[in-house]
Amino acid sequence: MNDRELIGRVLAGDPGAERALYDAHVDRVFRLVYRMAGDLDRAQDWVQETFIRAFDRLAGFRGESALSTWLCSIAISVSLNGLRQVRRARDREVGLDDAGPLGHQPIQADPDLRTRLGQAIEALPDGYRAVFVMHDVEGYTHDEIARALGVQTGTSKAQLFRARARLREALADFARE
Amino acid sequence: MPVLHDDDRDPLDDRIRELAREVNAPPATPREEMWQAISARRQAQPRRAPRPRWVPWAAAAAAVLAVGIGIGRMSVPASNRPTTPATSVADAPRVNPTAYRLAAEEHLAQSEAFLTLFRASLERPGDHRLASATARQLLAGNRLLLDSPAARDEATRRLLEDLELVLAEIAQLSPGSPAQDLDLIRDGIERGDVLSRLRQAVPTGTVPNHGAL
To answer: Burial code of A85-117, b = ≥16 C-beta within 10 A, e = fewer?
Structure first.
């Protein structure tokens, strides 16, 4: 059954079709959301929110992009909002005086390149992070990213370029070793 | 800005990319657990009873006819108006297409003013009941326009459709709505570029009649 038929059956109230739609797309959505969340509980919450919103809005899906891209755009929107909330909650806990800057958190000295990279990715501005994760980690094309984020393809490329530059800068001392 | 290509990569990029795949590597998808939670939340949501298909169409047609004829009458010179009431729809004056355009411009100007105020109100905590009621009024007008000749213009139709989603979300706000709902609405406004598209669609000098506001 293709996406169009599946959507038709979901809109007609077929609960089996809802589950089929979920099964067809949940792995890809979960992978992306988990990469953004970096935490299983948060990832589960955000994936659930993604599908709930998708089912609620399915009647408005115009089919201009693939269903997977549309779901991805909801997942990214939910994830970016979630990250903003996590950051706000962290700021409240730490207190404004002690909170570090949002965009450029200092990278702690750590001998493990992977840990440093994880911190550097987390310190990227949200837009850069989303594009880097989608393109370089999950293999989305710039066209898919542009549709999902509601930006031009050129913006996606520019953000990837800048994200890579930030990460290189953060890991520069490893490169010299 | 230089032209960017996917292969504009430093040699370190390949190593970073390889390692990045190991950072936050997703575990197996907990699909059953998530599906149970999704099903439970969806069952807890109040389901809207499906309306017969003719109801919105009939309501929209009646309201558009009323609004259109009202505006159309205003656009007909007084000397041309019939002196006796029309006895049938066929006798009604033809609706001037300009009336729909003017109605759409007025609606878009009101929506732009409303969303600007609403977005500013998100910066401080408060009760969004008034915003929700206003959104419902605008939503009703939006739906009428979507079913009217004003929506024949592709750009206007898309703008009205995107506006409908945002207004519907605001209309559903209640005092108990979680903060995440507000974030999602703000995100919807920003990502769809709804406000700037509204500003572009409203001709300079259009001052909204604050009927809905």
So the answer is: eeeeeeeeeeeeeeeeeeeeeebeeeeeeeebb
Domain coverage including residue B182: 93-200
Q: What is the pLDDT of residues B50-96, one digit of tens each?
A: 444 344 434 444 444 454 444 444 444 545 544 444 444 444 445 56
Say whether residue B196 is in contact with chain A using an 8 A CB cutoff.
no
Residue B180, both tokens: 């995440």
Asked if the ipTM is above 0.95, the reply is: no
Examine the pLDDT at A177 and tell me if it is beyond 60. Answer: no
In this structure, are residues A177 and A131 in contact, taking their beta carbons and an 8 Å threshold? no
Inter-chain contact A168–B191, Cβ cutoff 8 Å?
Answer: no
- Report if residue B55 sits inside a domain: no
Indicate yes or no: CB of A85 within 8 angstroms of CB of B38: no
Residue B137 class from Cβ within 10 Å (0-12 exposed, 13-18 middle, 19+ buried)?
middle
User: Which residues of chain A have a CB within 8 Å of the CB of B27?
Assistant: 34, 40
Is B80 within a domain? Answer: no
Domains of chain A: 1-99 (1.10.1740.10), 106-177 (1.10.10.10)
Check: CB of residue A78 under 8 Å from CB of residue B184.
Answer: yes
